[in-house]
Amino acid sequence: MSTPVLPVPKYLQDPELTLFSDQVARFFERNAPATRSAGWRAAGQIEREFWNEAGAAGLLGVSIPEQYGGMGGDFRHDIVVFEQVVRHDVSGFAAGLHNGIVTPYVHTHGTEAQKRRWLPRLCSGELVAAIAMSEPGAGSDLQALRTRAEPVEGGYRISGAKTFISNGQVADFIVVAAKTDPNAAGQGVSLLAVETGDAKGFQRGNKLKKIGMDASDTSELFFEDVWVPRENLLGEVQGKGFSQLITELPRERLIIALMAMVSIEMALQTTLAYVKQRHVFGKAVLAFQNTQFKLADLVAEATATKIFVAHCVEELLAGRLQAEHAAMAKLLATELQGRVVDQCLQFHGGYGYVEDYPIARMYRDARISRIYGGSSEIMRLVIARSL
Hints:
By secondary structure, this protein is of the alpha+beta class. The chain has three domains: 10-127, Acyl-CoA dehydrogenase/oxidase, N-terminal domain (Butyryl-Coa Dehydrogenase, subunit A, domain 1, Orthogonal Bundle), CATH 1.10.540.10; 130-238, Butyryl-CoA Dehydrogenase, subunit A, domain 2; 243-385, Up-down Bundle (Butyryl-CoA Dehydrogenase, subunit A, domain 3). The protein is 48% helix and 15% strand. It contains eleven helices and nine strands. A four-stranded antiparallel sheet has the order 2-3-7-6, with no helix packed on it. A three-stranded mixed sheet has the order 1-4-5, with helices on one face. A two-stranded antiparallel ribbon has the order 8-9. It is globular and about 80 Å long. The N and C termini lie far apart (43 Å).
């Protein structure tokens, strides 16, 4: 294993977490070798079977209590999985979405009956999760949702379209944000779970062709009068969806910041190795003062940013992470990710533009970080409102 370029946070310096990290790394080395992951990138999604393999290995629902089928860990265990996903270049395995976003929605906001119904299946891989918020005309503005969930006897009928949905082609458990009261703004939004196997009127649309994250399937979804029982309303209280989404967004943004920091470190590691062995004008690229100074600046910025992100993790573990701090973490980490991978690609010269070199894929994959989970502009709005 390469010597870390950036400091290892104290919250990960636990022997039990080190053992777990080794276990997760071995799983990816065994089950996601380069040849298999290359096939996923070519296909535009990972095999559904891989989710079952991950569930059997205990990688799903790692922070969910054992009574609901999870490992009984905490957010640090989730971080270990997220980091290893990046380190092993398995972007199609959306563990950040499944483990870090959707499953906690059920655990935090679901009724006891909903937890017992869904969490064990999410932890085993029987269910693969997605969340459907974005629409063709509503991205970050959740109050502008047009998807309707009309209350009817015994349940709801969902009609509308969603887009940019990660896991859209493989998910069979989709939490849908919809208007149950179109006249009530945010208080009219509810979250409803759709199990796609028996959902008449549900249709998967196009798998969107992206400029990066090749193995991560991102899709359009269509709901045409899809009926779900009332017990699929998350928390079984209508109109709580907007507050549920807002409550969970800081963790989602922190997850994106964490994964950006791993990408930054990977870019720096691969670039340092390259500039040490690549020679021009008779000496290593690293021997030039320009290279040294630029890398020094990047490592200094990355170290400071990682320390702040680690502080936010500690705040989340203590139950007091503030929304504006999570926004700061995402803004700083993802903007820095873009600058780091761009400069690191530059150090590779023409080879940096060739797919055979990891930095080329890192460059393409990094661009989405400043968009999903709330764009950088939205992060600035969140921060500005706290001033």
